[in-house]
Specification:
- This protein has a single domain, classed as 2-Layer Sandwich (Alpha-Beta Plaits), CATH 3.30.70.
- It contains two helices and four strands; from the N terminus they run βαββαβ.
- The protein is globular and about 25 Å long.
- A two-stranded antiparallel sheet has the order 1-4. The protein has a two-stranded antiparallel ribbon with strand order 2-3.
- The protein binds iron/sulfur cluster (2 copies).
- The site of one iron/sulfur cluster has 14 residues, from helix 2.
């Protein structure tokens, strides 16, 4: 399981620096999480101002 970024993302970039495995990058219209790298730590979700990062399923 990996976290994912919803359409609530405002592309502020804050989450990128929080990820210990560099799984977050800027996508076409919002930031994206590489599910193959994400370790499910939740650090990014805690700093997102719009609560756009949610646990995947
Ligand atoms: Fe998007 Fe939230 Fe990351 Fe900012 S912190 S880039 S709003 S997912
Ligand atoms: Fe990175 Fe942790 Fe967020 Fe996954 S949950 S993208 S490992 S900060």
């Amino acid at each position: 399981m990996a976290y994912k970024i919803t359409d609530e993302c405002i592309s502020c970039g804050t989450c990128v620096e929080e990820c210990p495995v560099n799984a977050i990058s800027e996508g076409d219209d919002k930031y994206v999480i590489d599910a193959n790298l994400c370790t499910d730590c939740g650090a990014c979700a805690e700093v997102c101002p719009t609560e756009a990062i949610v646990p995947g399923n």
